[in-house]
Design brief:
globular; Rossmann fold; 5-stranded parallel sheet; alpha/beta; binds cobalamin; 2 domains
Length: 217
């Protein structure tokens, strides 16, 4: 990595930690102007910064106002980067995604949605705080190949189980994948999901594999 690229990615990460949206926008624009890859900026810059914010929050060095400012900085930068994430054509399929009922965390979900769109999926984003009814309506209306559920809290991840069994009971044939910080493969299997991914890149691979399996079936 060139020194200037490294420095810009580091500054982008810091702008998220500092909760400085203005700086995040300025750095994103500078980095794009010298052709630094938008996905790399998201991963090595924004997500790294947000991870650190998570640690600061956990250690009670940051409180909700700081976290919100960091989320805002990330959001403003994403507005610039998202349209620039390279689209690799080849995959087609519809994915309905949403954060489950009771949970309003959407930063990770939005990154996953962007990554899925970037490989060619048509992503229907239902937003946050989505219950079984919301997912069922999308299954009926949008006929997704995959339904993706996100949850960031132990208190709300249990809702995934209810949504998964409700979707199955209603005859939903879509593959169901789940993700979010408190989850792992073991819980995903227990909840009856078809797949789990720890981050957006693995989510992209998982969705592509499920589509391949579907087309072979
Ligand atoms: C930012 C943040 C907030 C912001 C959210 C802003 C927003 N628009 O999302 C605000 C300030 C609003 C917030 C509020 C709250 N928060 Co909060 N928040 C966080 C924080 C610091 C970072 C989360 C984040 O964005 N991470 C960055 C993203 C990129 O990572 P990610 O979400 O994990 O996503 C990646 C993967 O998990 C995966 N993934 C995610 N979704 C999906 C879906 C699929 C299908 C797949 C395959 C993969 C996948 O891919 C993503 C990208 O790589 C975490 C701490 C932490 N360490 O995670 C706490 C945290 C999640 N919050 C927490 C809590 C408790 C709350 C509040 C209840 C606080 C309160 N007392 O009011 C409220 C919740 C209100 C509600 N009803 O939802 C706790 C949850 C504890 C728990 N285990 O249950 C945490 C862990 C903090 C802590 N250590 O206590 N929060």
């Amino acid at each position: 990595m060139t020194r200037i690229k490294e420095a810009l990615i580091d500054e982008l990460s810091k702008s998220v930690i500092e909760g400085n949206a203005e700086k995040a926008v300025k750095i994103s624009q500078e980095a794009i102007a010298i052709n630094i890859d938008a996905y790399e900026l998201m991963q090595a810059g924004l997500m790294k910064g947000m991870k650190e914010v998570g640690n600061l929050f956990k250690n009670k060095e940051y409180y909700l106002p700081e976290v919100l400012m960091s989320a805002e900085a990330m959001h403003e930068s994403m507005k610039i980067l998202k349209p620039l994430v390279k689209k690799n054509a080849g995959i087609s399929g519809v994915i309905t995604i949403g954060t489950v009922v009771g949970d309003i965390h959407d930063i990770g979900k939005n990154i996953v949605a962007t990554m899925l769109e970037s490989v060619g999926f048509n992503v229907i984003d239902l937003g946050t705080d989505v219950g079984l009814q919301g997912f069922l309506e999308s299954v009926k209306r949008d006929k997704p190949d995959i339904v993706a559920l996100s949850s960031l809290m132990t208190a709300t991840m249990e809702n995934m189980k209810t949504i998964i069994s409700g979707l199955r009971e209603a005859g939903c044939k879509a593959k169901i994948i789940i993700g979010g910080a408190p989850l792992n493969q073991e819980i995903a299997s227990e909840y009856g999901a078809d797949g789990y991914a720890p981050d957006a890149l693995v989510a992209q691979r998982l969705a592509a594999e499920l589509m391949q399996k579907k087309s072979r079936a």
